[in-house]
Design goal:
Subcellular location: Membrane
Order of helices and strands: HHHHHHHHHHHHHHHHH
Membrane topology: Multi-pass membrane protein
Strand content: under 5%
CATH architecture: Up-down Bundle
Low-confidence stretches: 1-5
Protein name: Manganese transporter
Largest sheet: none
Number of domains: 1
Number of strands: 0
Radius of gyration: 20 Å
InterPro entries: NRAMP_fam
Main location: membrane
CATH class: Mainly Alpha
Helix content: over 70%
Length: about 400
C-alpha cells in the first residue's frame, strides 16, 4: 500500500500497531505524570533501538523469504539449542501474549466505555470476535490496511489531545534532547524501553515482510516503511507522555491508568480531549488485539515448520486460542499473577537471545551481499547489550512479583 512517492507503508506499521497497546498507554501516562517531560529521551532511544532490530528482521524476511521462526528452525542445527528456542518462544510469545491479550481487550473496552459512560461486561467478547473475524479472513492485505488505519487514528487522536492541553514547549524539547534520570525514574525508563523493544515484533516483522516483498531489490521499500512507521509509533508515545505531563505533573494529582488520564483532561481541554483519549485507547487496544495473536501464530508456525499460511489450521488454532484466553481474562477481570511472572521471565530471556540470533543470521552466508556491515553490527551489539540489561531487570522484577 503506497502513500506518496517512494514510501510504502506496511509491515513496520504492524510493528507500530503492536507496541502501541494499552500497556504502553499506561506506562507512558505514568511516566509523564510522575516525571513530567524528563524521560522523553528514553523514547527517542527506544525508537532508534527498534529501528535497528526491526531493520534486520525485515531484511532477513525479504532476502531469505523466511520468518524468524523458520530461520531458527532451518539454521540452528544443534537439537538442544533448537528445542530450547522452541520452549522460549512458546513461553514468551505464545503464553505471554495470551495473558497480554486480556490487557489489550480490556484497554479497547475502556476506550469504548469512555464514550458510552459505562463499562459493559460484553465489550471484551465483542472486540475479541471483531479481531477474530479480521484474522479469519486470512488476508494479509486486509490486516495491513486495518492496522495502518488504526495507527493513523492513534496518531491523530493522541497528537490532537497533546496539542489541546498546551504543553510547556521548553520543557518538552529539553526532555526530548537532554537525557536525565530524576530520582526514582530508572524503572520507568526501563519500562518505556521495554514496551517499545519487544521480541514478538521481530517474528511479526520478518514474516510479514517476506509476504509483502519477494525480491531483495525491494529492501528500499521495506526501509522507507520502517523509517516512517516506527517514528510514527514513537510520536504517539511522546504525545501520551507529554499529555500526562501537562495534566498531572506538579499538580498533586495521582494517576493509576489511562482512564484516569482521560477523565482528568476535561478541566484542561474540555470534552473533546476525553473523547479523543477514549478513541485513541480503543484504537491502541484493538490494534494490539490483532497483532499479538498474529505475531504468536507466525512465531509458532515458523519454529514448528508449519509455514505462515494465514488460512492454515495450525495458524488459525494459535491465534484463536490466544484471543479466547484474552476474552476470558478481560471479561472476568482475572489477574493471573503466576502466568504473568512466567511470561516476564520468558520475555526477559527471549529478547536478548532473539537479538543475538538476528545479528548472527544477518551475518550468515544465506544473506549474501545483504549481510550486516560493521557499522550495523556495532549498532546491533549495542542494542543487544541494552536488551540483556532489560532482560535481567525484567527477570528481577518478576522474581520480586513472585
Amino acid at each position: 500500500m503506497r502513500k506518496g512517492k517512494g514510501i510504502s507503508l506496511g509491515p513496520a506499521t504492524l510493528v507500530a500497531a503492536a507496541f502501541i497497546g494499552p500497556g504502553t498507554v499506561v506506562t507512558a501516562s505514568l511516566a509523564g505524570a510522575n516525571f513530567g517531560y524528563a524521560l522523553l529521551w528514553a523514547l527517542v532511544f527506544s525508537v532508534l533501538a527498534t529501528i535497528i532490530l526491526q531493520e534486520m528482521a525485515a531484511r532477513l524476511g525479504v532476502v531469505t523469504q523466511q520468518g524468524l521462526g523458520e530461520a531458527i528452525r532451518r539454521q540452528v542445527q544443534n537439537p538442544l539449542l533448537r528445542w530450547g528456542a522452541v520452549a522460549l518462544i512458546i513461553g514468551a510469545v505464545i503464553i505471554g501474549n495470551s495473558v497480554y491479550q486480556g490487557g489489550n481487550l480490556t484497554g479497547a473496552s475502556m476506550g469504548i466505555a469512555g464514550v458510552l459512560g459505562e463499562q459493559a461486561a460484553w465489550l471484551p467478547l465483542v472486540l475479541g470476535i471483531l479481531a477474530a473475524a479480521l484474522l479469519w479472513r486470512g488476508s494479509y492485505v486486509l490486516l495491513e490496511r486495518v492496522l495502518i488505519a488504526l495507527v493513523l487514528l492513534m496518531s491523530m487522536t493522541f497528537v490532537a489531545t497533546f496539542l489541546l492541553v498546551q504543553p510547556d514547549w521548553g520543557a518538552f524539547f529539553e526532555g526530548l534532547l537532554i537525557p536525565s534520570l530524576p530520582t526514582g525514574s530508572v524503572l520507568t525508563v526501563i519500562a518505556l524501553i521495554g514496551t517499545t523493544v519487544v521480541p514478538y515484533n521481530l517474528f511479526l516483522h520478518a514474516a510479514s515482510s517476506a509476504k509483502k516483498w519477494q525480491q531483495p531489490e525491494q529492501l528500499s521499500e521495506a526501509r522507507s516503511d520502517l523509517w516512517v512507521s516506527i517514528p510514527l509509533g514513537g510520536l504517539i508515545s511522546v504525545a501520551i507522555v507529554s499529555t500526562a505531563a501537562a495534566a498531572f505533573f506538579g499538580k498533586a494529582l495521582t494517576i493509576e491508568g489511562a482512564a484516569d488520564l482521560s477523565e482528568s483532561l476535561r478541566p484542561l481541554a474540555g470534552d473533546w480531549a476525553t473523547w479523543l483519549m477514549a478513541l485513541g485507547l480503543f484504537a491502541a487496544g484493538l490494534s494490539s488485539s490483532i497483532t499479538a495473536p498474529l505475531a504468536s501464530a507466525y512465531a509458532l508456525s515458523g519454529i514448528l515448520g508449519r509455514g505462515g499460511d494465514l488460512k492454515g489450521l495450525p495458524f488459525r488454532l494459535t491465534w484463536m486460542g490466544i484471543i479466547a484466553i484474552g476474552v476470558i481474562i478481560a471479561s472476568l477481570q482475572i489477574k493471573p499473577v503466576t502466568v504473568i511472572w512466567f511470561a516476564q521471565v520468558a520475555n526477559g530471556l527471549l529478547l536478548p537471545i532473539m537479538a543475538l540470533f538476528l545479528v548472527w543470521a544477518c551475518n550468515h552466508s544465506m544473506m549474501g551481499r545483504y549481510r550486516n556491515s560493521w557499522r550495523q553490527n556495532l549498532l546491533a551489539m549495542l542494542v543487544v547489550l541494552v536488551a540483556v540489561g532489560l532482560g535481567v531487570r525484567s527477570i528481577g522484577a518478576a522474581l520480586q512479583l513472585w
